[in-house]
Specification:
The complex is a heterotrimer of chains A (about 350), B (about 450) and C (about 400). Chain A is mainly alpha-helical and about 350 residues long. Chain A is about 70% helix and about 5% strand. In chain A, the strands form 2 sheets. Chain A has a two-stranded antiparallel ribbon with strand order 1-2. In chain A, strands 3-4 form a two-stranded antiparallel sheet. The longest helix of chain A has about 30 residues. Chain B has about 450 residues and is of the alpha/beta class. Chain B contains 13 helices and 17 strands. Chain B has a 7-stranded mixed beta sheet with strand order 7-6-8-11-12-16-17, with helices on both faces. In chain B, strands 2-1-3-4-5 form a 5-stranded parallel beta sheet, sandwiched between helices. In chain B, strands 13-14-15 form a 3-stranded antiparallel beta sheet, with no helix packed on it. In chain B, helix 2 links the parallel strand 1 and strand 2. The longest helix of chain B has 20 residues. Chain B starts with 8 loop residues before the first helix and ends in a 23-residue tail after the last helix. In chain C, helix 5 runs antiparallel to helix 11, helix 8 packs antiparallel against helix 11 and helix 9 packs across helix 11. The longest helix of chain C has 26 residues. Chain C has 17 helices and 6 strands. In chain C, the strands form 3 sheets. In chain C, strands 1-6 form a two-stranded antiparallel sheet. A two-stranded antiparallel sheet of chain C has the order 2-3. In chain C, strands 4-5 form a two-stranded antiparallel ribbon. Classes of the chains: A mainly alpha (about 350), B alpha/beta (about 450), C mainly alpha (about 400). Chains in contact: A-B, A-C, B-C. The interface between B and C is large, with 69 and 52 residues.
Chain lengths: ~350, ~450, ~400
């Protein structure tokens, strides 16, 4: 039983990442009708926002350590971050430690900017082109983005830890009346889940309760009519693209402490997030979120030792198997609309 | 129709002798040399086939640096590096047998198809007489088989699976790097000293060939020491978040977690294990421990502070104080500004060993080179006295057991050597069951054309 | 000729000529010069050009005609490869039965996948095929290791003794065609040039010519018209009392068999299979080849395949040393600047160049490389001021 609860937590955690990426993909698809294969790359860029921020914060100059030598016999040089000089050792260390949360502030404008440039500079010209062309051009863009990151940051994963305050785990078991220390869950992963829930709620509230959101929703349903009403829907859709990019970016920033960022992490997520979107149903925001959590939880269950013992390999294929079953029983995924991307 | 496989440079030259521009088809069998890609003229071409894209690109880049350094030293440039400490003095800095060493490079992408395509282009187009490199066992086995077929020598780069010189061993292939069996045999005594003999281990194993052989090796040698294996779970290679595999570990009754993972898998599973508090946990009244059988410094830097205090094994480490290692670290460090990785070391050494074997054999013919390498004993290349065993073309040398350093001095100073396991302890019979048993044979060497 | 109209005959003859003369065309630069780096006329790459050409031609029959975008075609290539290698290991070292097995098994597997996946359309269909392929990949990598060799894959071993071939004890068998090995052939040195004629390549080339011819016939047949109808308006097709499903399924199986043929040929040329041949990026690659070359055109997929394989194999091999040689004529400082400017785009940066090329082609040539060719031709025609009467090219770009 306790193992089930842990796996549900794991599933919610994985699901939050899937759901955030799928949410952004669906926003872009629903508003602009564009299949964005570069969305995984946006997630990756988000993660690297955290890396860049922690590099900036720990930017340092060399100080010789007296009496020590490096591997070539030269005097050993130690890195002394500038923030240590400016704010003193203790405050400086705290600032470096909190690089990941601080980079949220950095990532939002950067990612909205990236989204803007992408939409105005490239995607705009592809609205009238076939989906296959959109896929190819965004896929090519994803390759270019990840190669640029590889050029500057190398191919190895880069450890980007969460602040020390979030080290350790919460003892869920004693909360829920189990034996203590049976259900432990790391604080940062709980933070990630809450953060994801907050962003998802924020996006839904924005679309539901603001005039801007109302116009966008109207535009999603019938772009032409909204245009005829004299509303410049294009401008709003561009902004939506920026917001979608920011959602993917934030998902990436917060994910950096969980999985060390590397340049191809976007590609790793790309296929999965498409499966999530399609299982949820093309164009449905609640569907994308629900499918994200559903697949995350199923994946966690399938990787439990006794499941793998009984059905070897089930942990490798569960997502695809479930996707096939759902698509065969529900033609448009969980909550898809008729006629969207069916031809 | 003749049975030529490859090459083109040799032909070009034969053709030129037959009268430039003559439209006579030249059959390759007519080649005098009797082997594929015999170097003509005053240069010889080697093929460096390393991952330049994909997750192991950084490791490949380091291998390539080592190869460039080795070529420089062979051609008499630089400070000579390990040429000065190598026990065999056949090499004199004038290339190989007086021929200047040239090289071609290719990208394996860590995929066997791409690696073979790249190796074939080196053999067919560039006339490479030896192929070396790689950063994964699947690629090593695939390229080794290709070189056997084509009749060139393959000097394996970083490949740790038993199979490379076990059940998939080939007469034209040679491995300097150590293997899973050696890791297990070297680690087990150190682990039982450090953690006691009644431990319960939980294995997480990457679900592919290397993972299987490593799990088997570590399991059998730790079980021989009295440990018990509670469970062994296979994880998909493409997994990035290992939380759902790590979470059940603490309540499984185990008190040691063995991560049979490499590369990105290792970085992520270790990070996750530390996040879930395994390193600070208690189980069965003991401190919970984590073990990573194969360490790589490049990858350890990806795992950051999480490696502190965690045991593993490695083929070589730049902090070794012997003459050979020092010479290599100095010339590598002075050229590139940072210390070499174990991948760089093994690739550098393999190139030197090949050049030396050619010189001693007096021929580039693969069979002659193989004969010179078989049962060759040498020293001064960083691992102490080493034997290239004839039965399986595996190097036998001391194995380093290392631990993540508690107080690293620099970004390269992540591991400390805790024990140098003597070679006798990691030696096994050529027909050991983990090495393919009695069925595994080298076959006969192939000179190609 | 051969039941083709005038335009198609010309096209076929051009392809025939290009394929047979490939050893010359692909080796335009003399050996030993700096430009020899760009020669592609060595057996491995020539074989890959035609094999991936077949793969893309087959994919185009499904995607170009019906518009159904399969994202799992690499699975059929992989299944074909495994079938072929088992035939070589157990049955006979002759490649023809291996290729036939590959086609049959890939066809059977594509029938199964197609039957299920074609219950949905659009992106739902794409994801279904993707799911099947990813499952095949994951299982081949792990659970099915006894059958597939896992990560290491399968090769012919010294212990293999095929039923119909005489292999000496411990000898590693080689794939052959009527006793002639795939690697056999001869080189022809003429002046500074060296041309390689390789048996394996010509076997693959003949297979590709047959595949290409069949694809022309399919494009021009009533069946092909039906497939186009599926693409343009399925509903109207339904109303006229025709069920689109049998036609699409047939197209799916045909393209699966093309993939199997490609997979079988890959094994015949280079006797090794690994599971990464079925990974989604491999499926994505054939999609890119087809779109890049020009989906729905006859020649496009072949061009796209050649374009990508050329980059993968030639540009990735350019290293710093070679760059220094190229720019050696410049003064020292300039040389270094040029090398450091070009270096990020070649060698280990070949993916970057490929990505940029994709973007440029898709942005500026909506119909793919074929459209680029047509525009070029148009330019020449206008220059020579000939009448533009025969604009009805046999190859029409995708919609």
């Amino acid at each position: 039983m306790d193992q089930f609860i842990v796996q549900i937590l794991n599933g919610l955690d994985k699901g939050s990442a899937y759901a955030l990426i799928a949410l952004g993909l669906t926003l872009i698809f629903g508003t602009l009708g564009v299949v964005n294969f570069a969305h995984g790359a946006l997630f990756m860029l988000g993660s690297f926002c955290a890396v860049i921020m922690s590099r900036i914060l720990s930017a340092s100059h060399k100080v010789a350590v007296p009496g020590e030598t490096d591997f070539l016999g030269n005097p050993l040089m130690r890195d002394q971050p500038y923030v240590y000089d400016w704010f003193g050792e203790a405050a400086g260390a705290t600032i470096v430690d909190w690089a990941v949360p601080i980079s949220i502030l950095f990532a939002i404008p950067v990612m909205i900017g990236v989204g803007f440039i992408m939409e105005r500079g490239l995607i705009k010209h592809f609205y009238k082109r076939p989906h296959a062309d959109q896929i190819l051009v965004t896929f090519a863009l994803a390759i270019v983005l990840q190669e640029v990151i590889k050029y500057f940051f190398g191919a190895n994963p880069i450890q980007t830890p969460a602040p020390e305050a979030f080290d350790g785990s919460l003892d869920f078991g004693s909360w829920l009346g189990f034996d203590p220390l049976t259900i432990m869950y790391p604080y940062w992963r709980l933070v990630y889940f809450l953060f994801a829930a907050l962003i998802i709620a924020g996006v839904f509230a924005f679309l539901q309760f603001t005039t801007f959101g109302m116009v966008v929703r109207a535009g999603m349903a019938d772009r032409e009519t909204v245009g005829l009403l004299g509303i410049d829907i294009d401008k709003r859709f561009t902004l939506m693209f920026g917001i979608a990019a920011a959602v993917a970016g934030l998902a990436g920033v917060m994910y950096a402490p969980i999985v060390a960022p590397n340049y191809h992490m976007g590609m790793d997520f790309l296929v999965l997030s498409f499966v999530v979107v399609v299982v949820g149903g093309m164009g449905s925001l609640p569907g994308a979120v629900a499918a994200g959590f559903l697949l995350g939880i199923l994946e966690s269950f399938a990787s439990m030792p006794w499941m793998v013992d009984k059905l070897p390999g089930i942990n490798q294929i569960i997502i695809y198997l479930v996707a096939i079953i759902i698509l065969l029983t529900r033609p448009r995924g969980l909550m898809g609309r008729k006629g969207v991307m069916e031809d | 129709m003749s049975n030529s496989n490859f090459t083109r440079r040799g032909v070009l030259k034969t053709g030129a002798i037959a009268g430039a521009g003559l439209t006579l088809p030249t059959y390759l069998r007519a080649q005098d040399s009797g082997f594929t890609n015999a170097p003509t003229g005053d240069t010889v071409t080697l093929g460096f086939n390393v991952p330049q894209s994909g997750p192991y690109a950084d490791e490949g880049a380091d291998e390539l640096r080592a190869y460039e350094l080795a070529v420089e030293h062979l051609n008499g440039g630089g400070d000579g590096g390990m040429l000065n400490t190598f026990s065999s003095k056949a090499l004199d800095g004038t290339g190989i047998m007086g021929k200047r060493v040239e090289y071609v490079t290719g990208d394996t992408q860590t995929k066997s198809d791409a690696a073979r395509a790249s190796a074939r282009s080196m053999i067919e187009k560039d006339g490479a007489v030896m192929i070396t490199g790689g950063s994964s066992s699947g690629v090593a086995v695939a390229v080794q088989a290709l070189c056997q077929e084509a009749g060139v020598i393959f000097m394996a780069g970083l490949t740790h699976s038993n199979d490379t010189t076990g059940k998939d061993r080939k007469a034209n292939g040679f491995r300097h790097f150590f293997n899973s069996y050696m890791s297990g045999a070297a680690l087990a005594p150190v682990l039982s000293n450090a953690y006691g003999t009644d431990r319960k281990a939980y294995h997480l194993t990457a679900d592919y060939n290397w993972g299987y052989t490593t799990e088997e090796a570590v399991r059998s040698s730790t079980e021989a020491m009295g440990w018990e294996t509670v469970n062994a779970v296979k994880t998909p290679l493409t997994q990035t978040d290992f939380s759902s595999y790590i979470a059940p570990v603490l309540n499984s009754g185990a008190d040691v977690l063995v991560l049979n993972h490499y590369g990105g898998n290792m970085v992520n599973s270790l990070t996750n294990a530390v996040q879930f508090g395994l390193r600070d946990a208690q189980a069965n009244g003991k401190n919970f421990e984590i073990v990573v059988p194969l360490y790589s410094r490049l990858m350890a830097s990806g795992a950051g502070a999480n490696v502190k205090g965690i045991y593993g094994s490695t083929n070589w480490h730049w902090s070794l104080q012997d003459e050979g290692s020092q010479a290599f670290v100095r010339s590598f460090g002075e050229k590139y500004g940072f210390p070499p990785s174990q991948a760089a070391h093994t690739c550098y050494v393999q190139t030197l060993l090949y050049a030396d074997a050619v010189t001693r054999a007096g021929s580039f013919a693969p069979c002659a080179v193989a004969e010179a390498l078989e049962d060759f004993e040498f020293d001064g290349l960083g691992n102490g006295p080493t034997l290239y065993r004839a039965e399986d073309h595996q190097c036998f040398k001391d194995v380093l057991v290392v631990r993540g350093k508690e107080n690293p001095q620099s970004e390269f100073d992540l591991l400390e050597v805790v024990e140098v396991t003597p070679v006798e302890q990691v030696t096994y019979a050529p027909d050991h069951p983990q090495m393919g048993g009695a069925d595994a044979t080298l076959g006969s060497c192939n000179n190609g054309a | 000729m051969l039941g083709l109209n005038k335009n198609d005959t010309t096209l076929f003859l051009v392809v025939l000529g290009l394929t047979l003369l490939a050893p010359f065309i692909l080796n335009p630069f003399p050996e030993g010069t700096g430009m020899a780096q760009f020669n592609a006329g060595y057996p491995d790459l020539m074989q890959r050009f035609v094999i991936f050409g077949i793969f893309a031609i087959g994919f185009n029959i499904l995607f170009g005609l019906t518009g159904y975008l399969s994202f799992g075609h690499a699975a059929f290539l992989g299944v074909g490869s495994y079938a072929a290698i088992w035939s070589l290991k157990l049955f006979t070292l002759d490649v023809i039965p291996a290729i036939i097995f590959a086609i049959i098994l890939a066809g059977a597997f594509s029938l199964l996948v197609g039957f299920i996946s074609l219950r949905r359309s659009g992106i739902y269909f794409s994801i279904l095929t993707l799911a099947f392929a990813q499952m095949s990949y994951a299982l081949a990598y792990s659970v099915l290791t006894p059958l597939t060799g896992g990560e290491t894959g399968l090769q012919i071993k010294g212990t293999d003794t095929p039923l119909l071939s005489n292999v000496a004890e411990g000898e590693i068998g080689r794939a052959n065609f009527l006793g002639m090995e795939m690697g056999s052939g001869f080189d022809w040195a003429a002046g500074g040039w060296a041309f390689t004629f390789n048996l394996g390549y010509y076997i693959a080339a003949v297979a590709m010519l047959i595949a290409f011819y069949l694809s022309i016939r399919i494009f021009r047949s009533p069946f092909g018209i039906m497939l186009r109808a599926v693409k343009s308006n399925q509903q109207r097709m339904n109303y006229t009392g025709l069920s689109p499903k049998p036609y699409t399924l047939a197209a799916f199986v045909i393209s699966g068999m093309y993939a199997g043929l490609a997979g079988g040929l890959m094994v015949a040329m280079d006797t090794q299979v690994g599971p990464e041949r079925m990974f989604w990026t491999a499926s994505g690659e054939v999609v890119i080849m087809t779109i890049l070359g020009g989906a729905g055109t006859l020649l496009g997929p072949v061009l796209g395949a050649g374009f990508i394989k050329y980059f993968e194999n030639i540009v990735s091999k350019i290293n710093k040393d070679i760059l220094h040689n190229w720019f050696a004529f410049l003064p020292d400082g300039f040389e270094d600047v040029m090398v450091s400017l070009v270096y990020p785009f070649v060698g280990k940066g070949w993916h970057l160049t490929l990505g940029i090329m994709f973007m440029l082609v898709v942005i500026f040539l909506p119909g793919g490389l074929v459209e680029g060719g047509q525009r070029l031709m148009g330019l020449f025609r206008r220059k020579s001021k000939s009448s533009e009467a025969d604009e009805a090219d046999g190859t029409e770009p995708a919609e």
